[in-house]
Design brief:
Chain lengths: 110, 232
């Protein structure tokens, strides 16, 4: 095995360990937490908030390819797709397909 | 061992109108293409999604690898971006714990905790009796995880044919899918506030501390929403 590829394997192992750690500790803590407890409710709020924060960040301060589009266009696409989601009685296929096409289109012609 | 009726009930959540297949597929196609571009081979790319299965973590890994960060720095960066999995696990597993089920199922299946599988489980757990929820969850996890792995392969193989427009298009699908799922999850005041405040405070904290913004913003927003909901 070349040095490069053994390095990649190590990077993958380190990444998966760093990822599994939080999941594992979560299960350990869960053993002592009842679903009716206040602490469960509190963690539930935090979980939704952290996800919302993550998603908002992906849209407003993205990494990678998305950063090459305008932030106003991205916000418009997200808003349009959420409206479509609500108007189609919470169908998830239409808004997701629409989002890719809408962004590619607006990004090129605006 | 695993009750196949509930396993397949969970597995089938990747079909249908609220299926995460499209969104997951789009984002892991992008990951497959990205991994190829930074020099991973096909086996390594599959291995990466197989073992990690968390999108933001894989993105951070790719970025850090590209700039030649040390292993300890990669570990810290990935751990930081994936600490959100801790509150997600703590707010999911107590719903699935049952005395009659062996512990290994929980320690193994926590690997499937990622935004899409988590949101599906949170939206559907009440339709399954507590005893069988873990098997239902393993079904959902296996389904979404398989899509991620297959899409990584497709992305890797198709990377030469994906132009910039297509990559940008693929990248927006996931945040849009998650946003819609979150809007769909707003069923109580507490959860709605958690989501809205999180979406405001997360980016706000980005101006103070970019690396910690999700965690700080999320914990502040969630705590605030919890207290408003409890003492209203």
């Amino acid at each position: 095995m070349s040095e490069m590829s053994s390095n990649i394997i190590l990077v993958i192992l380190v990444t998966s360990f760093a990822t599994y750690l939080s999941r594992f500790l979560g299960v350990v803590s869960s053993e002592k937490i009842k679903e009716t407890s206040k602490i469960f409710k509190w963690f539930n709020c935090i979980a939704y908030s952290v996800l919302a924060a993550l998603i908002a960040r992906m849209v407003i301060f993205p990494a990678g390819e998305l950063a090459e589009s305008d932030v106003l266009i991205r916000l418009f696409v997200v808003a349009a797709c959420v409206l479509m989601f609500l108007f189609t009685k919470k169908n998830l296929v239409y808004p997701t397909v629409l989002s890719a096409m809408l962004l590619a289109l607006l990004n090129n012609y605006l | 061992m695993i009750n196949s009726k509930y396993f397949f009930k969970g597995f089938k959540s990747i079909k249908g109108l609220d299926s995460p297949a499209l969104a997951l597929g789009a984002s892991f196609i992008a990951i497959g293409a990205l991994l190829k571009n930074i020099g991973f081979n096909l086996e390594q790319s599959i291995f990466s999604t197989f073992l990690t299965y968390a999108l933001p973590g894989s993105l951070v890994m790719a970025e850090s690898f590209l700039i030649g960060a040390s292993l300890i720095n990669i570990f810290l960066a990935v751990w930081l971006v994936n600490t959100r999995l801790y509150p997600m696990t703590v707010s999911l597993m107590p719903l699935l714990l049952h005395k009659s089920q062996p512990r290994w199922k929980y320690y193994l299946s926590c690997h499937f905790i990622a935004v899409s599988a988590w949101l599906i489980m949170k939206g559907n757990y009440q339709s399954v009796e507590k005893k069988h929820r873990i098997d239902f969850w393993i079904g959902i996890g296996t389904g979404t995880w398989s899509i991620a792995i297959v899409s990584t392969i497709i992305g890797f193989l198709a990377s030469d044919y994906l132009n910039k427009d297509m990559m940008i298009g693929l990248a927006i699908v996931n945040p849009v899918y998650f946003t819609c799922m979150m809007v769909g999850a707003m069923k109580s005041l507490q959860i709605s506030l958690s989501i809205i405040l999180g979406a405001i405070l997360g980016p706000a904290f980005f101006f103070i501390t970019p690396e910690w913004s999700i965690l700080y913003g999320g914990v502040c927003a969630g705590t605030l929403a919890y207290f408003i909901g409890e003492f209203r």
